[in-house]
């Protein structure tokens, strides 16, 4: 079987940026299928969602809605998640998830269970996604399906914080990340991987404020970009960052049989680049909300508790009516 990641026409994902008419022509000429596998167990549509390319996913829904299998699932390596489950697992996907549900509501298997026995409704409740959970219930999603933990969706309303955190981390979402952040980790002004004090920092407003306050911060290019091998890596001038970058450079050089000197460059960025970095942080500060994805999940639980109290009340009233 040929996977899309091995096909140079698809592997860079650059074709997704084409204007609509050109993209349609490209897909037709190259026999593109949105349901094809990117690699083993990982369909193309799951890949772009997992990489938070929501605008690309939405574009495909707009351009070729009938060619998308809305019940497409990934393989065992990734948990046998349906597209609906994956969308319910990705908090930043809110508007796209609702659009997907509305577009395919007559075809969706709302009660499909993944490898853990959970449905989309289980995950929507675990992550406090009130709007998604409400719509799934309105469309007839079962409230009675039991997962491998022996729990129905409603029983996750009071789940421990550890369950929320582990669920988010399972799909590589940082629980501390700001709800307005476009990705987990802080990068430099050119969107290159960035380490400060030997670690990649989460996109958190208080963290960025702390970085901005460091007047002595100097960024250094440690690892030089090599086509098909590695990105450019940038970091601060502390010893811990140097050591970690050196270890990474050794690993890259050894794995690819190239000279360490070629990639491990240790070049302080020019002053104008330092200023651009500071400006990019200031802009990001203005965009972020100060609310973490974890906090958003907890707040959603409170709204969902009210929803299920209403459902319980309606059930009681209906039962009383039938008895009388």
Automatic annotation (TrEMBL):
Descriptive protein name: Ankyrin repeats (3 copies)
Report the InterPro entries cross-referenced here.
Answer: Ankyrin_rpt, Ankyrin_rpt-contain_sf
Entry's Gene3D superfamilies? Answer: Ankyrin repeat-containing domain (1.25.40.20)
Q: What superkingdom does the record give?
A: Bacteria
Which residues form the ANK repeats? 116-148
Q: Kindly give the Pfam families that the UniProt entry links to this protein.
A: Ank
- SUPFAM superfamilies per the UniProt record, alphabetical: Ankyrin repeat (SSF48403)
Write out the entry's keywords from A to Z.
ANK repeat
């Amino acid at each position: 079987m040929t996977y899309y990641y091995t096909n140079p026409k698809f592997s860079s994902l650059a074709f997704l940026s084409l204007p609509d008419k050109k993209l349609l022509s490209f897909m037709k000429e190259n026999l593109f299928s949105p349901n094809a596998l990117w690699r083993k167990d990982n369909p193309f549509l799951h890949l772009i969602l997992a990489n938070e390319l929501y605008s690309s996913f939405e574009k495909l829904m707009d351009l070729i809605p009938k060619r998308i299998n809305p019940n497409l699932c990934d393989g065992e390596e990734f948990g046998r998640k349906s597209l609906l489950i994956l969308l319910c697992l990705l908090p930043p996907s809110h508007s796209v998830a609702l659009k997907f549900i509305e577009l395919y509501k007559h075809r969706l298997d709302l009660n499909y269970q993944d490898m853990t026995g959970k449905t989309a409704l289980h995950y929507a409740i675990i992550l406090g996604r009130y709007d998604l959970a409400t719509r799934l219930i309105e469309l007839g999603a079962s409230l009675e399906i039991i997962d491998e933990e022996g729990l129905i969706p409603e029983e996750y309303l009071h789940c421990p914080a550890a369950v929320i955190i582990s669920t988010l981390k399972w799909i590589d979402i940082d629980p501390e990340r700001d709800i307005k952040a476009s990705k987990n980790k802080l990068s430099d002004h050119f969107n290159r991987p960035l380490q400060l004090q030997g670690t990649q920092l989460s996109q958190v407003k208080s963290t960025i404020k702390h970085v901005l306050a460091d007047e002595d911060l100097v960024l250094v290019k440690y690892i030089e970009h090599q086509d098909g091998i590695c990105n450019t890596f940038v970091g601060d001038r502390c010893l811990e960052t140097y050591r970690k970058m050196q270890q990474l450079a050794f690993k890259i050089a050894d794995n690819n049989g190239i000279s360490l000197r070629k990639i491990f460059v240790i070049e302080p960025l020019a002053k104008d680049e330092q200023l651009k970095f500071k400006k990019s942080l200031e802009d990001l500060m203005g965009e972020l909300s100060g609310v973490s994805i974890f906090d958003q999940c907890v707040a959603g639980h409170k709204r969902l508790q009210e929803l299920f109290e209403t459902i319980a009340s309606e059930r009681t009233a209906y039962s009383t009516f039938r008895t009388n």
